[in-house]
Structures are given as structure tokens and as C-alpha cells.
């Protein structure tokens, strides 16, 4: 499903107060904090993908078995890399889109096991002398998960693993460079502030948070489905049984983006004007984290009586969505509208 954000402002005309020094300083801090946080996330992803590439390369080298990393080491680097990627899921209108990398790190939803079929096809082709692909479904973290979790021999895995992880590391570096490009997103934010003042800048950053919430919601609700018909194979990391873990990392990074990415600071700088909203959001984040079931596997909680715990979590998560996507924009005099088309 592709969601495009329609930026709708209800502030009317931009008033002279937007040019006041205090307002300008608050907007500048918001834009700077947002940019610094997002660059840190891009740095983390690039670094983790490099570590995954290095571990994969060493694992596949024909060296002493006692000195080469184990499969478990490579799996842990994949887990770290996917967690770093989860902080970027749902981004819209930034370097991820501009660089054409929206689908370069993960293929999901995968309702027809496209990843598995494509990897199997490429394994057979490369075994016969074909070239390792450098783009598409088979160069994603989803494909790496297949190679690491399926019952394959080391020589089979190593037909694709070094090439795929090298491409992922390259894509991570490309995204990192785009975030640090002063003529890219940084200039876009500055232009928004100059031309649209608080309306444009707040709508952009709130839209980013909203899109990220929507992606987390999809990660949860697709496998949740109904109590009679849960769909564990629709979870994003069902092969490694890490889907609940990545749901947790996504929620944590969403809260970090709200807190460290400038929005909460912006609200607090207004004194008591937005205090009630800030307190409501703090409570909603805390409740959501508190009611997320323990463990790494989502499939476990989709079975039998465990399903009720996911429904309890959903109540808290829905409340977070209300606070983040409705109350907060309304409190700032903004309205975020969504146009959804089902492209899955």
C-alpha cells in the first residue's frame, strides 16, 4: 500500500508573528534537531550494513574454521542491520525516496513469498555460472534472512551472500551521503521554512512521524488479521522469528524521533500552551511500550489465548495513533489528510 501525504494547513494566512525572533529560533531548532537525528539514523544504518558485509565476507572466505565467524555471528549482524533499517521504514518525502532506495533494503509485504522464489531461482542460476544480481528483491535484507535461516550449506549461502551484503552496504552509504548533502534535504527544509514558515515545516515533520506510525501499524495488523485467521507468515521477519523484536525497535525509534528529532522540544518551548498534549503523548508512548508483549517472535502471540495480549496492545497503539496523528496536529492548528490507494 502506497500512502501519499496531502499537506493541508488550516492556519489561514501566515501571520507576522512567524517572523518574530522567538518563533524563528524555535523553528530553526526544530529543523536542526530533525536533521541531526535523521543523519544519525542514516549513519547507524550505513555502519551496520558495513559490519554485515564484512561478517558475510569473512564467513564465506576459505580460511581456517577456527578464525572465521560462525553463522550465528552473521545472523546477529543481520539482526542489528535490520533493527537499524527499521528506523527508516515509512519515511516519505526525504532522501530515501529521492535516491530511489525505498525498496532497496526490504521487500515487504511479501504475500506470495516472492523473496523465497527469487532467491531460489538466483541460487540455481549462479550455481550454473550466472552473475550475482546487483538490484531487485534478491539484494534486500529480506533475501539475506532467507539465506541465513533456510537449510542451506555454507557453499550454497556463499553463492549470493557476499554480493548481496556488498550491495546493501553500498546502498546504505548512498543513503548516508544523501542525508549529509547540504544541497539536498537540508536545503529543502530551509526552503520550507522560508516560504511556508511554521505551517510547512511542522507539516513536513509531523507527516514524517505519521507515515512512520502507519508503517508500524501495517507491520502489526497484517499478521494480526482476525482471531480466527491470524497470518503469521505475513509478519516481516517470520523466517528468523524476529518480527516482534523489530516491531519493538520501530516503536522505540518512533518515540526517539518525536523526542530527539525536535518536535517535543518545540512543543515544550511554547510554555504551558501544549503541555497537556505533551503529557498525553508521553503517556501514550509509555503505555504502548508497556503493553507490547515480551519476546522476539510475533507468531507465538498469534496463537490461542496469547492473541488477547496483542489486542490489548492494539488499544494502546491506537491511542498513540490518535495522539500523534489527530490531537497533536490539531493542537498546532494543522490538519493532516491522507489519500490511500491499495497497491499491494
UniProtKB/TrEMBL annotation:
Pfam families linked to this entry: Peptidase_M75
Keywords from the named record: Lipoprotein, Signal
Lineage: superkingdom: Bacteria
Record-annotated Imelysin-like domain positions: 44-295
Organism: Oceanisphaera marina
Keyword flag Lipoprotein: yes
CDD domains to which the protein is assigned, alphabetical: Imelysin-like_IPPA
Descriptive protein name: Lipoprotein
Compartment annotation: Cell envelope
Phylogenetic placement of the source organism: Bacteria, Pseudomonadati, Pseudomonadota, Gammaproteobacteria, Aeromonadales
